[in-house]
Structure formats: C-alpha cells, structure tokens
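Consider the tokenized backbone below.
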C-alpha cells in the first residue's frame, strides 16, 4: 500500500479513496470505501486508453462478463463505469498476500495444502468456464490468499470462449511461464488453456520452480511449446494430475470439474502452510488501521458528486509542458523550425488550391536525417510543379534534438500550430514514439517512416500511421530468404539479452508463431557474456542457419566473429539495426533485412534516384525514398479532403491502398495496422566487402538470391 499522490482525486464514482494498491501500464488500483461503507479495490484506466472507443466497448463488455461470476473463489465486480472520462471498475477487496508473495516467503508448500489450493482454484475456473469465459492469465500474482481460502482475481483480459489469444498488434496476451502452448502460439483458446496455467501454478507452488524455466520471455515461451515441463520434486500423488494439466494438446487435459473431483474438496482448516496464517491476518489488520476517508455527502440520488479521474502522470506532464511552451512559443519559434525554401504557389486562374504545411520532425544530427529531408523536399517541389494539383504544399522542418523530450516538445508546438496539416516523424525508436501523445491530442496525423519499436504497437489508438513493416510484425525479408532460398534443417535464433526488449519480437515471430518452415531453437546469450560458448555449441551442427535477433551492432559483430572462428558454415541473417561499422567489418556474407530500399539499385525507384542526383548532385541515401513516398502519400490524402480540417486526413488515408515507389501504403480495415502480406516494403541486403549491398525486395526473394 502507498499513500495517495497529490494528483489522485479524493473520490471516484462515489467511492472514497484511501491508499494506492498498485499501478501498471493500464492504470492505477486504489483501496476505496464504497458509498455503503465496504472496502473495495478500484481500478482506474489511464486516459490514453480511454480515448479509444474500441477500448471502451471492450472494457464495458469485460465488466459485464465478469459481473456474471458468483462463485465463492472469485472476486465479484461490485460496480463499474465504462463511460467515465477514465473508465473504472470496483471489486470486493481481499486483504491478503498473493500466492506469488507466499511462495517467495516462507517457501514451498506441502503436497496436502497444494491439493487444497488446487481444488479451490479448479472450482473457481469451473465457474468461470460455466459463465462462458476464459480467464487467460491464471498465475500466482492473480491468486490472493484470504483466511478462509484463495481467491482468483483480475479478469481484465478475460474473453468469451473461442476468442483469439492475440491482441490486434500481434502480441500474446498473458504471462510467459503460465501461458498454454496454444496461447503462446497466438491461437484460439478455450477452458483447457486455463487448466494448463493452473498446472503451472501448482508445480511452482510445490517445487519453487517454474516448470518451463526462467530467463528471456521468448525462451520460456519456446520451452512451453516444444519441451516437457520440469516436475522434479512434485509428490507422487500430484505428479500425474499436474502432468495431465500440462499436456501440449488441449484435448488431453482434464476439465476443471474433473480436476476438482481428483483433487478432492477444499477444507478451510489448516489449508495454509505454517507461518502464512499470521501473515494473512497481519495484512487484514493493516486495513483496519487505515483512517476512514471522509464520507461523500449525499442529499439524494442526483446530488452525488463524482469527481473525474485524473489524467495519467505521463499525460499530465505533457499538458503542463504544453502550457509552458505555449507561453514562450511566440518569441522562440524561429529556433525550433525553419521554413522550407519552397513556398506554396499562389492560386491562379480558376483552380482552387488549399495550402497545407507538412512538417518534417527529426534531428539534423541524425545520420539518416539529411537524406530524408532531401527526399521530402524533392517530393514537395515535384508536387508543386504539377499544373493540375488541387493543393499547394509547404515543407517545414522541426528539430527534435535527437531525444524523446525534444521530440515531445517539438510535437506539442506542431500540434498547436493550425497551419500544420500533417507531421512526418523521421527519427529513431528513441524519439518517434514521444510524438504520439501531443499529435493525438490535437488530432494531427503523424506519419512514421523509420521507427519500428514495440512502443508503436498502439498507433491504431492514436492519430499516427506507421509506414513500414516492423519487428513486431516480423523480419519478413530474412525469414523469406531462409524459407525460400536456404531451406536449412534447423535455424538457431540468438536472443541477445543485452537488448532483450527490442529483440523479443523477432524471436517470438521466428519461433512461437512458426514463421520459419524448418526446426528452430533459441539460444539466450546474457548481456555480460560474449558469444564464444554459443558458437562452440553450434559448431556441432555447422550447417544450421543462425538468426541474430539482437539490435546492437557491436554485439552482432561479436556474434559474427565467434561464429567465424568456430567454423560455422550455415546461413547467417539479422535485422537492419546491426548495420554499423563494427558489424560491417566482420559480417561478410550475412543477409540483412531492412525497411529501406537502395533507390539506386531497384528498377521502380530509378527515376526518383535520377531526379535526386540531378537536384542534389549526390545519390539518395537510406530512407530518402521512404520520406519521398511519405510526402506523396500525405499529398494524396490532403487532395482528397479538400478544405476539411486536419482531423479528416487520417481517415482519408485509410480508405484504400496507395502505391508508392517503395511499397504499397495499405492498412487493415479493422486494426488499422500496416498490411504486410504483399509488397510489404521489406528489403534484403548482403554484406560484401564491408558494405551492405541491395539484393531484392522481399516479394522478389527466390532461388536466385
């Protein structure tokens, strides 16, 4: 428990807040007193999620589904409001530690107590499944221990039976280590998935070890799908039933009702191991010691004051920063952006032309910025030379200083300028995501050309559009190269834990989602290790292909060097983030998948490359053609909306695919994510003589590459 923060409201929906119970990515959970005096756990959803109408609809549905649960071992929903500025949900409060805390301290549970725990949780799941739900996140942290028995909590990601295990962005819902194989693969899940998760919980409780090990999430998921559980130490009486729960195929697992019959009934006397009853009682006593919040004054049903939930701390800081910047913007505008050399042409004759400003957001110090700025400027110049145009374009540049804070500051100022119709973020994974929130607030369309971090997975809830395939959607060029050209017996995926968060999407796509046709294996390499041990292990099978999933050029160089020294002979592939001097010096023969084309080497971009050389007396560099396409794509959308405001642009761009010189700009009608099935904008390069040389577009990869 933590005291309330200064920006926490005193009450929400008539519930008087006492303390914070916790906070996470989705929102904040408070301990609150209901209008009737009962303690409850009140979860408030962050404002950035609440702005998405689809999220509100899901939240309302899930609250309604959870309210169906009436079993003793689940925690009932007592009230919810999906229409509040920040939606909230209140459940009965269980004043006890979680099973995760209990297993960590004092330690392992005896077999008899584990059977009682399993019986209660099996009965809880039986009720969940009878209500037509699948919990999907059964884990020790979601089991609370009360004096009279356990309670299964947190139905925030519960779904109706038969729903997919994936979110719209392709990420797995649930917690690695407790996910079922079908959940890990992103397939449709049913009640057997919860039974598998319960088997993991029981195994951990009795042995103190996760049955599929620890380490990187991708490695744990891989073992869950492909390897047998570690059940050493599970008592003989429990081993058989836990092993059945952990069967790879859903139909081979017992149902919750059968599991309850096998484990026997729950007996409240002595169900907790020695030492835990005192801890549970102490946790309950802490609630009794809290001061009772001041009551809400109620004169009648219509006079209850329901304060709005506050904006999230992140959003609040941005609002404050935006206000402060607004005070100084008039005096300092010239320092943060520059007019382009091309001014919009005046309207002439009978042609009515609207004037639109396109702002290029990036840092002149970024090694890729100059190429993007020149490509964008060339697109504007060519557009304004077209006598039949209906819109005039002006290009401005906004300096993001190469930092997330600078990107957010620049985006706030762009959003506040009514002349700006669209912004193009040219920066990296470190800077582009920071521009999302200010642009979303102002309904300013943000086109993202280069960044591909998982932080951009939620762009469909903003005003942004991602104009490339990403690591999350899969490293298509190198996967296609392995599947269509190399066809190895096995591919070893190197999960570099030095860049674990960034490399995880590639590991997941290549292994868990089965995007490779051949056998796969995952090798975790710790951040403080070199790659010598890994290279020695793979030397036993020197023809295996290697997919390096990390993003550090120096770490990729160390991997390449170790493989070369160990005599590895198979194909070696990686993603674009490794392309820097350290890796290029030792990565001879590696194939690299990128999101940018070599405009000088592809037939569909040669006209652009010739115009670029004529205009700037140099060849276009990486990302120049992508920025050129981004401006042309924006112009296409601006022409379709006429005099309508900036908020009309993004829906216009989503209406139908548009063909650029680098790729087709097309988006899924439901999720609004970039379509990658055809002409997805992925490109294959080969490292030769210390340089990455263009090989083919992803769709053209075949036996000749």
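A designed sequence for it:
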């Amino acid at each position: 428990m933590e005291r309330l923060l200064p920006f926490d409201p005193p009450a929400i929906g008539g519930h008087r807040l006492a303390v914070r119970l916790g906070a996470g990515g989705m929102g904040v959970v408070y301990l609150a007193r209901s209008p009737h005096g009962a303690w409850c756990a009140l979860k408030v959803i962050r404002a950035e999620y609440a702005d998405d109408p689809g999220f509100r609809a899901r939240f309302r549905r899930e609250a309604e589904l959870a309210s169906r649960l009436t079993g003793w071992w689940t925690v009932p929903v007592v009230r919810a409001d999906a229409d509040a500025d920040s939606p909230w949900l209140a459940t009965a409060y269980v004043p006890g530690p979680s099973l995760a805390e209990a297993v960590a301290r004092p330690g392992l549970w005896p077999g008899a107590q584990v059977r009682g725990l399993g019986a209660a949780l099996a009965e809880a799941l039986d009720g969940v499944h009878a209500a037509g739900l699948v919990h999907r996140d059964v884990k020790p942290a979601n089991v609370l221990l009360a004096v009279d028995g356990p309670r299964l909590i947190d139905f925030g990601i519960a779904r109706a039976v038969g729903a997919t295990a994936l979110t719209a962005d392709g990420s797995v819902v649930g917690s690695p280590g407790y996910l079922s194989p079908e959940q890990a693969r992103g397939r449709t899940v049913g009640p057997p998935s919860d039974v598998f998760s319960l088997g993991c919980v029981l195994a951990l409780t009795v042995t103190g070890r996760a049955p599929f090990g620890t380490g990187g999430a991708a490695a744990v998921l891989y073992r869950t799908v492909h390897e047998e559980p570690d059940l050493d130490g599970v008592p003989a009486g429990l081993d058989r039933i836990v092993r059945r729960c952990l069967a790879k195929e859903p139909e081979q697992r017992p149902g919750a009702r059968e599991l309850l019959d096998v484990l026997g009934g729950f007996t409240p006397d002595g169900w907790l191991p020695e030492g835990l009853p005192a801890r549970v009682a102490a946790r309950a006593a802490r609630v009794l010691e809290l001061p009772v919040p001041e009551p809400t004054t109620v004169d009648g049903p219509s006079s209850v004051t329901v304060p709005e939930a506050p904006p999230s701390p992140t959003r609040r800081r941005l609002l404050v920063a935006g206000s402060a910047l607004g005070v100084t913007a008039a005096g300092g505008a010239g320092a943060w952006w520059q007019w382009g050399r091309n001014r919009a042409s005046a309207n002439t004759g009978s042609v009515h032309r609207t004037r639109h400003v396109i702002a290029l957001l990036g840092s002149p110090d970024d090694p890729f910025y100059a190429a993007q700025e020149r490509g964008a400027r060339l697109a504007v110049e060519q557009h304004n030379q077209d006598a039949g145009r209906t819109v005039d374009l002006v290009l401005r540049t906004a300096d993001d200083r190469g930092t997330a804070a600078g990107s957010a500051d620049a985006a706030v100022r762009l959003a506040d300028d009514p002349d700006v119709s669209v912004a193009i973020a040219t920066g990296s994974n470190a800077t582009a995501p920071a521009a999302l929130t200010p642009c979303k607030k102002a309904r300013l369309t943000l086109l993202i050309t280069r960044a591909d971090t998982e932080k951009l997975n939620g762009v469909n809830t903003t005003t942004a559009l991602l104009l490339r395939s990403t690591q999350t959607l899969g490293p298509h060029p190198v996967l296609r190269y392995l599947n269509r050209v190399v066809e190895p017996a096995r591919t070893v995926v190197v999960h570099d834990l030095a860049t674990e968060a960034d490399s995880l999407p590639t590991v997941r796509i290549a292994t868990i989602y089965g995007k490779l046709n051949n056998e796969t294996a995952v090798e975790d390499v710790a951040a403080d290790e070199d790659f010598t041990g890994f290279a020695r292990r793979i030397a036993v099978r020197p023809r295996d292909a290697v997919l390096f999933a990390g993003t550090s050029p120096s770490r990729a160089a160390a991997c390449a060097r170790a493989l070369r020294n160990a005599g590895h002979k198979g194909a070696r592939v990686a993603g674009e983030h490794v392309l820097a001097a350290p890796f290029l010096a030792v990565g001879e023969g590696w194939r690299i998948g990128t999101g940018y084309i070599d405009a000088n080497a592809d037939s569909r971009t040669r006209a652009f490359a010739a115009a670029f050389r004529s205009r700037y007396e140099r060849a276009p560099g990486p990302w120049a053609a992508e920025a050129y396409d981004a401006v042309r794509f924006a112009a296409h959308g601006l022409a379709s909306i006429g005099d309508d405001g900036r908020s009309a642009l993004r829906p216009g761009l989503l209406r139908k695919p548009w063909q650029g010189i680098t790729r087709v700009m097309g988006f899924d009608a439901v999720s609004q994510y970039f379509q990658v099935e055809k002409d997805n904008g992925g490109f294959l390069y080969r490292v030769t003589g210390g340089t990455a040389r263009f090989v083919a577009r992803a769709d053209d990869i075949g036996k000749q590459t």
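Confidence is low (pLDDT under 50) at residues 157-172, 295-350.
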